[in-house]
Amino acid sequence: xxxxxxQGDARRSMSLLWRAxxxxxxxxxxxxxxxxxxxxxxxxxxxxxxxxxxxxxRAVGERFGRTGMALYTYVPSxxxxxxxxxxxxxxxxxxxxxxxxxxxxxxxxxxxxxxxxYLRHPWVLQVSQARPVLGPNEYVVLETVLRIMFETxxxxxxxxxxxxxxxxxxxxxxxxVAEARAAARVTGTSDEDWWVDRSALLTxxxxxxxxxxxxxxxxxxxxxxxMTDETVPYQERAAVEAFHAxxxxxxxGIEARLGGAMGCDTQDS
Length: 269
Description:
- It contains eleven helices and no strands.
- It folds into two domains: 10-90, Homeodomain-like (Arc Repressor Mutant, subunit A, Orthogonal Bundle); 93-259, Tetracycline Repressor, domain 2.
- It is flat and about 65 Å long.
- By secondary structure, it is an all-alpha fold.
- α1 runs parallel beside α4 (78-89), α2 (36-50) crosses α4 and α5 (103-120) packs parallel to α7.
- The chain starts with 9 loop residues before the first helix and ends in a 10-residue tail after the last helix.
- Helices cover 59% and strands 0% of the residues.
- The longest helix is centred in the middle third of the chain and has 32 residues, at 156-187.
């Protein structure tokens, strides 16, 4: 499922995100002895355990032995709660990176940390990036990677574009891993069993497969689909390899860009 951030009351949500004066005051209603931070922490626990599909005000309230209605005096709705959860948990993705070893080493460390963060909290991948949360921790994460990217010496517009590409590379490959893990759990069928069943049928249904799809067959004939670590499910291994290969290629491209003639530092989109 995909959840869009910023769907609740804009002023109330931004006020809670940025902890504006009075933002955390409980609205009129029974005093429950709760706090916004406690509710957000409990909601993150629910999402970590059950995913976004299992997140509800009722499920969060049960963590405190309360009803979901008891939370509404602190958080207006589930929409604002998702914004708060996302921004709170993404603080884990922020680390200080030593630039003494150069921008490339720092970017690799940043990408690997972000990758591990996504896999610790796979529900975050269900919060669409089409509309950012615009919370302080989200900006801290962005500020961190921009600080590294500006060390490359690239024009500002290139920094923006390539930072976006880096984020999406990490996110997309982590999402494949998260979904592969979920698929085995939800369907009860392992990756290996799924592939064995369907690859055999593919050969039966399309005996001329190699002739129809020669480039795909070329990969198979060259052993490109074979992987060394048999302890990890196929789709997960493939995504991990794609992540590392894509990261190397992207960073190589930045270095090549720096080595060539860089375009003007324009602000075109």
